[in-house]
């Protein structure tokens, strides 16, 4: 391999260009050299040689010998160098993996994606819950939601409180969900300030739908047993896409029963 390619290879392994030149000079010479000799043979300016040598000595890649009036230097065995590099990169890979896990944990708590994209596939219950709450928190005029039972199970009290607060802030809120006896009292309270519909058509085929008119989340069934779990979905901040999903949802909501009518039918 030509010398220039060796230098470039060492640079990719973490050497600076000067470190690569100095180390290869010492390897090819094999005899101890002083700083002036190293500078002349390697082409590294004398002003930079001492700093470069000190870094190489610190990493154990070059050994310093005391010789008379000045120090002389000799290269460590290439076997030692590449074993040390192997260990360094092994630790680096472990660090990368650890950083990725930490990063994924952080991003699972952040609902907003990177800008400049149109639609995203999302997965995981925590991620979906965070996006739902993020859209609800950001809504200023209108909030529409078709809410699946699993979302209610995980977020019921918090979600109901957030919906009520939004209505109090003047946001038009419309929700549809399966009304069951265990949440009936909370729904009665909500229905005083928001539009509530009862989903009466069995399983909700398209999952949860949440929109504030400009961005939306629609979930799909990711797990079928022991219960349906809507833990995958599509999320968009493109208003054109959001309107398309909203149109579909509004058509589905026309098949629902208004809460007032639901109560009447239950009494009947």
Say how many strands there are: 10
Please count the helical segments.
10
Approximate shape: rod-shaped
> For the record, what CATH class of the largest domain applies?
Alpha Beta
Q: Could you name the CATH homologous superfamily of the largest domain?
A: Endonuclease Chain A
Average pLDDT works out at 84
CATH topology of the largest domain: Endonuclease, Chain A
Described by strand count, sense and barrel closure, the largest sheet is:
8 strands, mixed
Oligomer: single chain
The N- to C-terminal Cα distance equals: 90 Å
Number of domains: 2
What is the beta-strand fraction?
Answer: 15-25%
CATH architectural category of the largest domain: 2-Layer Sandwich
- Supply the helix-strand structural class: alpha+beta
General description of the model:
The protein is of the alpha+beta class. Helix content is 52%, strand content 18%. The protein has two domains: 3-76, Orthogonal Bundle (Arc Repressor Mutant, subunit A), CATH 1.10.10.10; 117-267, Endonuclease, Chain A. Strands 3-9-8-7-4-5-6-10 form an eight-stranded mixed β-sheet, with helices on both faces. A two-stranded antiparallel ribbon has the order 1-2. Strand 4 (142-147), helix 7 (149-168) and strand 5 form a beta-alpha-beta unit. The radius of gyration is 33 Å and the shape is rod-shaped. The mean pLDDT is 84.
